[in-house]
Amino acid sequence: MNIQITPGLLHGSVYAPPSKSIAHRALICAALAQGTSVISPVDLSKDMDATIGGLRAMGAAIVREEKKITVTGIGKAPKQTKIDCIESGSTLRFLIPVASALGISCQFTGSGRLPQRPLTPYYDVFPCNGAKLDRSFVPTHCSGQLKSGTYQIPGDISSQFITGLLFALPLLSGDSVISLSTPLESAPYIDLTIEVLKTFGVKIFQEQGRFFVPGGQSYQPQNFQVESDYSNAAFFLTAAALGNPVKLFGLSCNSLQGDREILNALSCFGASPVWNEDSIEIQKPICHAAQIYGKDIPDLIPILCVAAAAVPGQTVIHDTRRLKIKESDRASAMTDCLTRLGAKIREEPNALVIDGGLPLHGARVSSYGDHRIAMSMAIAAGLADSPVIIGDAQVVEKSYPGFFEDLKSLGGSVDVI
């Protein structure tokens, strides 16, 4: 599906969608609890479909009703199964250790760029702890059963590997330790995992570079409320910071979500986010270049490139190395897309350099099969002098199926062509 965005002022308010990151975690905890949990609200995106499908394959009973999901935990796990993770890296990396802890012989598959995203930390550490993967990329088969002990893995590939182990190790009979061989990146995602685990009755103890996981723990069923998502709200928050009078409802000012950093990043560009009683708006738009450090916020970098293109001066976005193994090579994708619109942007080995303030024009761009590229370009289109056509724009369904409807509700001119 190709979408044409005609530039125009956005205005009004929108309710930020529920957090995909938190919903993944809550669903897995609910599936590991003995009893019935209710998780709400949940947007039924393709990533959620992948996690729900995977949990059902492992024996959980799951009923979906609009934005509410009822989960009855795994009773007797199957001896073997197959899980299609579609394009969800979270589903894949979270469920591999869970299946291995339950002793399920499981074939994991995926599509899109998922087969290019590495599973090396599990491939390397599992054989020392009772299980194994036959390949370090999907399709891969896990066999054996994890045993308690020490798990030494790198912290700078993806925090998802640590989260996966944090779900699985409490199920084992003995105590375990996760020891990081390299500094941790995307640390807020681990904080989020530990907080959700705590809600479901599971305790994790953390000190610098190590996580202590007591064994023999039991997940407790919960009625769990999913807070709104900063990762997806970032697109409309940036639109507001570009001078569109847009207000966001539903976000928590005390959230542990790492992508809450969007507010600080926009402030670095000169914006002034202001909290009201139940909403947030941007009272002063962005106005100057900035130095941005992307180590902990890889999902925000595409939309921050759009912000950088809009303001005069040279912005440098550092720590972009990990963007190459996301749903697309995001550094390359944003360089191509913004260049087509007339921006001056270049890619360096671990940075993006944007000389902003140049007028943008209409063009045809690709989503590169990446939901965050598609949504970033939809916001960038508002800066252009003529329509922007985004190819394969349906990829927003991966995380934010209602994105274009929300854009239209704010006065955006959105046409399928």
Please describe what this structure looks like.
This protein has 417 residues and is of the alpha/beta class. The chain has twelve helices and 24 strands. It has helices at residues 20-32, 46-57, 89-101, 120-125, 159-168, 187-199, 230-241, 262-268, 301-310, 330-340, 371-380, 403-409; strands at 3-6, 12-15, 36-40, 61-65, 68-72, 80-84, 105-109, 131-133, 140-144, 150-153, 176-180, 205-207, 210-213, 223-225, 246-249, 272-275, 279-284, 291-293, 313-318, 344-348, 351-356, 364-366, 388-391, 413-416. Strands 22-23-1-24 form a four-stranded mixed sheet. Strands 2-15-17-16 form a four-stranded mixed sheet, with helices on one face. A four-stranded mixed sheet has the order 4-5-3-14, covered by helices on one side. β12 (205-207) and β13 (210-213) form a beta hairpin. α2 runs parallel beside α3 and α5 (159-168) runs parallel beside α6 (187-199).
> What strand line-up does the widest sheet have?
22-23-1-24
Please outline the major beta sheet: 4 strands, mixed
Content-based structural category: alpha/beta
Gyration radius, in Å? 21 Å
Task: Point out poorly predicted stretches.
Answer: none
Task: Tell me the β content.
Answer: 25-35%
Strand segment tally: 24
Mean pLDDT: 95
Spatial separation of the terminal alpha carbons: 7 Å
What does the overall shape look like?
globular
Helix content: 25-40%
Count of separate DSSP helical elements: 12
